[in-house]
Amino acid sequence: MTRDGVFEAPGRINLIGEHTDYNDGFVLPIALPHVVRVTAARRDDGVLRLSSRQAHGVAEVRVADLVPGAVTGWAAYVAGVVWALREEGHPIGGFGLLVDGRVPLGAGLSSSAALESATALAVTELSGVGLDRRELARIAQRAENEFVGMPCGIMDQSASLLARERHALLLDTRSMETEHIPFDLAPAGLALLVVDTKAPHRLVDGEYAARRRDCHRAAELLGVPALRDLTGAEQDLPDRLARRVRHVVTENERVARVADLLRAGRVREIGPALTESHVSLREDYEVTVPELDVAVEALLAAGAAGARMTGGGFGGCVIALAAEADVEACAAAVRAAFAGRGFGEPECWTAVAAAGARRAGDVPAR
Ligand code: ADP
Ligand code: MG
Question: Is 184 known to be catalytic?
């Protein structure tokens, strides 16, 4: 067992299945080529020493003193993983961890889960703790839920740890069953355009928690363990809850539809499901903001086959499926629409499905 190493874990884009994970439903993300890299070295003094090229200052804490609240800010995502592992009885001692991330922070591309996943892989491998990747994902989620205090589902950590190159990850978040479905757009002459709207994340944490509460309440009223257990039938609920339920039910159906099309090699045909997902998130789930809606509208007008917000909403990114030949025109249309509305300049790039977390190679002997 080596004492040090470099580990990297990717950010993600969710193709479809938004706000379904905390309802025990289905998601279909891909991992991005953008990674968070963690250079890790075991220490014998029981101290966790954390620094990041993307953040100021160094955090130092004894692993024995880790409790939620003991570390705050960016370092909590890292310390939280060590805390969660120790809570579950795994012998993780001191570590020096240096973070260098290429996943944009707070853009909805899940830099947080990438950071947690790279940390989880690093400290378990270097401690000889053999946990499978589903367990690592659950521990990373627990760190974010209980140590950072963000009540996220398990999609982001699963995508970062389980995804495969040129494949989308179909995940049943209840059973944690996975299927790797080929997702390779270039041979079909298609591309996945990502528009980072740069819209400031407003109200994210509070609204996210509020949606979770709505779903929990609706499931309670309907007498089901989770909204995942409902089928399409109309539900007798107060209007707001009925719309939340409708989003979750129809979104799970859309994931199944897209997965079927991808399995059949009919990727060109997934566009309408993407757009329907956006409309559902805008009208029923109410997690979009004008920047997201304007981007989707401009992309569709410029010829995209489908477009939707991706991630939790309230800012962040939009994705569009478009013919390779139309990508430039789509990006130009979004830029023009944003300029016309007085929004900040968006950033546009194309994404491919990359590999999940891995060891990047041993650190040369010092
Ligand atoms: P997202 O996961 O969509 O990027 P979040 O708000 O969930 O947005 O997580 C972003 C937070 O994750 C940052 O504010 C920071 O605390 C932490 N983080 C992510 N990447 C890094 C990094 N390279 N260095 C330090 N902190 C990071
Ligand atoms: Mg996050």
Answer: no
